[in-house]
Amino acid sequence: MVKLFESIAFRGVELGNRIVVSPMGMYSADNGYVTPFHLVHYGKFAMGGAGLVFVEQTSVSRKGRITNGDPGLWEDGQIDGMRQIVHVIKSQGSKAAIQINHGGRKSSQQRAFRGNSHLTDRDIEMGEETWVPTGPSDVAFSDGFQTPIPLSKDGLTGVRDAFVATARRAVLAGFDVIELHMAHGYLLQSFLSPLANFRTDEYGGSLENRMRFPLEVTRAVRAALPSATPLFVRISATDWIDGGWEIEDSIVFSRKLKELGVDLVDCSTGGNLRAGSTNANLGRGPGYQVPFAERIRHEAAIATGAVGMIRTPDFAEKILQDGRADLIFMARQMLFDPFWALHAAEHFGLTGNFEKWPEQYAWWLAKWGGALRANGESLDGLERYREAAE
């Protein structure tokens, strides 16, 4: 049995396989509203056979956006566009997920594909909005970022309630899975990390205090969701910086998340800085983040998702067979090959007559593929895809 194509259930949602399209910021929304680009973007991944397709980090408030191009669900009018995306994803047999987020001290920046820098006077003249971000403390993320305003206790309550309201709108839009973004230096992760949180009240200092607000948000969102709706959390398992958040902290935190009803921890890393620092301990390579998913899965006894340069079907399958994670999250490889899941099924010999492909495609491929096979040729193009991606 190929584990990559085994079904798996979380609460009332069953995924047809273990392949997940990670949330990837496209920064292409219009005033928080999704556009036709998003329908095409997400629809192709669902047609490509992934079991779960994530809509990118979606802001819980206008001033929680990372950029002016972030989608949002901070008002009811934004539900309909998301509902259309959900319909497209589900129409192709995938399940639909959404990651909800507050940018915190990394907010009010230019779109990544335009430089990911502070907005210039010219940007503002062209209609881009700028604002002062908020965070746990008045410490800028890095050079070129604004100094955030520390959130008051009333401000914390407002952010928590915004997450709850956004999660409820996501359910109304039809999403099967909700994920809280607690990684990459955004608001909730910045409360966790001693690189960003210098508070002296009950939300700063000790590990227990730094976990307090993210856990309050988790508890409130879990209570607002239907019992059958899974709740995932993406974390940065380590900051990759001495004196920052470490894997041991993530294990403690993941145990707390499980107690609150979280169903899976999506294990990324990094994305957080302090002035003058670099991710000095970071060494990228195929599967470089998988060990964190493995440790959390076993030591916190919670399902995990592995992410990070997982390119080939054989490698993805081995991660699952070795019990290192429960789901495989893929990002850039999916951009390169949106049909990665179907190519993986072909690689493992699971599509003898292309039955896993959309029927509109299958008959074309079967005719073409039969001729190739008759000549002893292979349809497995994954090695070519892998080499090109590297």
From TrEMBL:
InterPro entries, sorted: Aldolase_TIM (IPR013785), OxRdtase_FMN_N (IPR001155), YqjM-like (IPR044152)
GO molecular function: FMN binding; NADP binding; NADPH dehydrogenase activity
Pfam families in alphabetical order: Oxidored_FMN (PF00724)
Domain NADH:flavin oxidoreductase/NADH oxidase N-terminal: 3-347
Keyword entries, A-Z: Flavoprotein, FMN, NADP, Oxidoreductase
Cofactor(s) essential for the protein: FMN
Domain of life: Bacteria
PANTHER family hit by this protein: NADPH DEHYDROGENASE C23G7.10C-RELATED (PTHR43303)
Name listed for the protein in its UniProt record: FMN oxidoreductase
Organism (species): Bradyrhizobium cosmicum
